[in-house]
Design a protein that fits this description.
Elements (H helix, E strand, L loop, with lengths): L7 H22 L11 H11 L4 H13 L13
């Protein structure tokens, strides 16, 4: 089979899906699974708080989650909000 004929609209949809797939593949191959650079819970919470985008409930939840992780240093944790 040398050639296949499909409507232009279908071709554009397939091309768009292929480009999206390629973009996601490149992201996943990149730094997606690289550990975060900061290991201190206090620094991380402070950075999130300084943005002003997160409420206290979220920050408390984030802190609890970070404290559960063995990756982060827990002796530097923030006091409860």
């Amino acid at each position: 089979m040398a050639a296949v004929t499909i409507p232009k609209k279908e071709y554009q949809e397939l091309l768009e899906k292929a480009l999206r797939y390629e973009y996601l593949r490149q992201i996943i191959e990149g730094d997606l699974f690289v550990p975060p650079p900061a290991r201190k819970v206090k620094e991380i919470i402070k950075s999130f708080k300084e943005t002003g985008q997160y409420n206290q409930k979220f920050l408390k939840s984030l802190e609890r989650g970070l404290k559960r992780s063995s990756y982060f240093n827990h002796e530097n944790s923030c006091p409860s909000f």
